[in-house]
Design brief:
Layout lengths: L2 H4 L3 E8 L6 H17 L4 E3 L27 H13 L2 E11 L2 E9 L5 E6 L24 E4 L2 E5 L8 H9 L4 E5 L3 E3 L4 H22 L2 E5 L2 E4 L2 E4 L3 E3 L5 E4 L6 E8 H10 L21
Parallel strand pairs: 1-2, 2-3, 7-8, 8-10
Antiparallel strand pairs: 1-15, 3-4, 4-5, 6-7, 9-12, 10-13, 11-12, 13-14
């Protein structure tokens, strides 16, 4: 971990919550304007929602949607790298990655403030549910869970379905992440009742706040809004501190940028009082590598 990273005391995070776009070109144009706005408000790290450049195409299995995939690096990453460099910010952006013919991933790219690619993360846990047909499109990432040094601190990324697994956040934090970002596309099927949606949203918020508490770090989740092909996305993008308290939380139905100031010095002081990493019983955790306890 670099000395420069250790010297960062506070980071302003911006989460860009938005609707789906009609085209990748429109998405890039609008996001460029959002980055300029966020940078003008002092943002250091700006994060997108999952698969933000298009509609959430995983609502059905359609081979034609593979045409949306793009190589990394490529023209898309060149665009966001230049955007990060122009404004001197770190950008965490979600991509539909074409790794090879017939092999695609759900991938986040971390662009450092100088325009370089600090790292990439491929979604590890791939869901398969009605309206979320992701196994048709994405191979699981080949890991590991990790963090990267940037101009504004050491950060990690998990993606959507990863958020339900404590191992993903734990291993990312153990690699030194002070802030874990989670680009997300989550909502409820329109045919499901509102009370079920509220319960699911509550579970979604609770488990991620628990990751922040258990790992003594900041956790930032970015969701989309609007209804797409029968799925109501519930927004609610948020940044949680290490007590599980929201520094900011967005609306459930509006496109907006929300900001949070993450005090890394306070995080370090907190870890001195609640030293969860010190007291881990790494000698006793072997069974977690089994599928189940039988």
């Amino acid at each position: 971990m670099s000395t420069k990273t250790n010297e960062i005391k506070s980071v302003r995070v911006a989460l860009v919550q938005d609707f789906a776009f009609a085209s990748i070109e429109e998405a890039r144009k609008r996001f460029a304007a959002k980055v300029a706005e966020a940078a003008g408000q002092g943002a250091n790290i700006i994060c997108t929602q999952e698969l933000f450049q298009t509609e959430y195409f995983c609502w059905k299995q359609d081979p034609d949607f593979f045409e949306l995939a793009e190589p990394i690096p490529g023209k898309g990453t060149d665009f966001y790298a230049a955007l990060a460099k122009r404004h001197g910010v770190v950008i965490v952006a979600s991509f539909f990655e074409k790794r090879a013919p017939g092999l695609c991933h759900n991938t986040a790219v971390i662009f450092d403030a100088d325009g370089s690619i600090a790292g990439t993360y491929r979604k590890m846990h791939i869901p398969q549910d009605p309206g979320f047909e992701e196994k048709f499109y994405f191979a699981p990432g080949d890991g590991p869970f990790r963090a990267w040094d940037t101009a504004f601190g050491r950060i990690g990324v998990v993606i959507c379905w990863d958020q339900w697994y404590p191992e993903s956040a734990r291993l990312t934090a153990l690699d030194g992440a002070s802030i874990i970002f989670c680009p997300t596309a989550i909502g409820t099927i329109e045919s499901e009742p509102d009370d079920l949606m509220l319960k699911q949203r509550h579970a979604w918020l609770t488990v991620q706040h628990g990751h922040a508490v258990a790992n003594g770090c900041f956790f930032a989740a970015v969701n989309r809004v609007g209804t797409e092909h029968g799925t109501r996305f519930w927004g609610s993008s948020f940044v949680s501190d290490f007590y599980g308290e929201d520094l900011v939380i967005a609306s459930r139905d509006k496109a907006e940028i929300v900001y949070a100031d993450c005090d890394l010095s306070a995080m370090e002081e907190h870890r001195r009082m609640w030293p969860f990493f010190r007291d881990r019983r790494i000698d006793a955790y072997g069974p977690i590598l089994k599928r189940f306890g039988d």
